[in-house]
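To whoever is on call:

I kicked off a structure prediction for a single chain this morning and the downstream step that reads the tokens threw a length-mismatch warning. I double-checked the sequence; it's 199 residues and nothing unusual in it as far as I can see. Pasting both halves so you can look.
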Amino acid sequence: MIKFFKAIFNKISFAKISDEELVKKYQNSSNTKYFDILYQRHSSKVYGKCLSMLNNETMSKDALQDIFLKVLLNISKFNFKSKFTTWVYSITYNHCIDVIRKEGKLKFEKEEYSMYSEKIDTNDAIHEEEELLKIKVHNLEVVLDSIPIKDKAVLLMKYQGGLSIKEMCSMLNKSESAVKMGIKRAKEKCIRKHKELFK
């Protein structure tokens, strides 16, 4: 009974501690209980992101384990320049891209977002946002599965993950203008593909 109450008390007390504080505690002590709490907090979201990108439960479960192994092996290098979640999602994004590449399903386009020099028209951006919101959930899943994985990942980061442009810059190691252009290109492809598939 005493152990039970201790466990409940620990859960309550750790609930108030931020991810970054838990990382610091783990870095200072190597006590696995701090890492376990981080895993419990974020594993379901990481799994969801893997499933969104890989479309396969078995692969996503394997990816989840591989990702947290990478997190564990590299957590001592975490430098607190970004949020812990941003860092973990960056590892998740890159790992899923690697998995897809190994499966032979990914062909990177030669063009890089950093090379785009076009200006983004605000009215166009608003119109694209409205067009995306009109797409039904089922149709959107079909559309996302039919556009290049890099574009799908960018849209999932912004709209499913709710990441800010700044966080995406950190994750993708690209400038703000490059990330914005990447989102614009991805939205355009999404809208075009929706028109092709659901006339």
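Update from on-call: the warning came from a stale cache, not from the record. Cleared it. Sanity check on the structure: Residues 2-102 form a domain with the Rna Polymerase Sigma Factor; Chain: A fold (CATH 1.10.1740.10).
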